[in-house]
Amino acid sequence: MTDIGLPAAETGRSLWADAWNRLKANKAAMLSIWYLALMTVLCIVGPWFTPHDFTTIYQDYTRVPPSLEAYPKPDAIDLAVKDAVKRSRLDLAGWEERDGKVFITVTSAKPIDDRVTRYIDRSDVFEGAQVTEKSADGLKLTMSADVQKKYFFFGTDNTGRDLLTRTLIAGRVSLAIGLLAGLVAVVIGVLYGAIAGFTGGRTDEIMMRIVDILYSLPFIFFVIMLVVFFGRNFVLMFLAVGAVLWLDMARIVRGQALSLKRQEYVQAAEALGVSPGGILLRHVVPNLLGPVVIYMTLLVPQVIILESFLSFLGLGVQEPMSSWGVLISQGAKNIPSATWLLIFPSFFLTTTLFALNFIGDGLRDALDPKDR
């Protein structure tokens, strides 16, 4: 008797497998995911490899423009020498630079103390100042010092801090705030709205009236109250902000849940005896992910902008910490004289928001069950 070969049964694909395959086919979304991952790694790891700490202030390098060449420039050395000698209350006889060292000759009507080298070391331009030659009467002295080479690829801000390091540190704060508050708002809003919409009836009425009451409260006043209650810890503060921003998410999810609970597959699950919790988690919530993801990609920049506003009021991120919103606010005040203070943080923020929008569009298309 001959065996009849039967075709192998095809393995079913889940919603997540189909979604991942469709997402991989979206080049813009995948490129945005890689860019966002790279941006996150740069903001986390980058400050450890930059040549300056984000709190270090260089008084001799205030608002210097970005450059791939090392500072100081020749004119800056001349200015630094004159300032140092002026602070020492001596007369400058001359100076010259040789082999990475500067030699300064000073004179005075009174004998010069060798400790005058301290005035040279106080400059951000020089280090290791020492006396190399002194006249017999002590009225003329020559000092040498090493010229410190510093790189400021993004320039410096109004107080002389490295903008590259501060931009990366600000990225840590902005991304953490946006994602943290966004996740809090999504979790609370999805659960609250799905339960209200799927349950319906009196439960839905009571839950949505609570949302209406919270909507009636002045938003910024409510946020300020939460900030005062939680203190200046930005993590706790934006957990509180996320706990306020869930209201829009709850309304969106509730409307979607009201529509989905009338679908045939939900009614079939009810007829098969699936519990309401199982239907909610396995059928309703997965089909809500498209709108939820899109709203979250819009929520992250909204939180970043809100953080900038709170920081302007003195309730957000405080010095020496910073965020992209704060750097942009400071850069906008210096457009005529220092455009780089606005260009670099704006570029980081704008490209990150573009990436989030492309990712949101890709996830919306990938998670749409109608495209399966």
Automatic annotation (TrEMBL):
Keyword vocabulary terms for this entry: Cell inner membrane, Cell membrane, Membrane, Peptide transport, Protein transport, Transmembrane, Transmembrane helix, Transport
Record has Acyltransferase as a keyword: no
Subcellular location as annotated: Cell inner membrane; Cell membrane
One Gene Ontology cellular component: plasma membrane
Domain ABC transmembrane type-1: 171-360
Top-level taxon in the UniProt lineage: Bacteria
Record Pfam families: BPD_transp_1, OppC_N
Database matches in PANTHER family: OLIGOPEPTIDE TRANSPORT SYSTEM PERMEASE PROTEIN APPC (PTHR43386), OLIGOPEPTIDE TRANSPORT SYSTEM PERMEASE PROTEIN OPPC (PTHR43386:SF2)
Main localisation: membrane
Transmembrane segments: 28-49, 173-198, 235-253, 292-317, 337-360
InterPro entries: BP-dependent_transpt_permease (IPR050366), MetI-like (IPR000515), MetI-like_sf (IPR035906), OppC_N (IPR025966)
Annotated membrane topology: Multi-pass membrane protein
Protein's recorded name: Oligopeptide transport system permease protein OppC
Keyword DNA-binding: no
Homology family: Belongs to the binding-protein-dependent transport system permease family. OppBC subfamily.
Gene source species: Aestuariivirga litoralis
Gene3D superfamilies xref list: MetI-like (1.10.3720.10)
GO biological process: peptide transport; protein transport; transmembrane transport
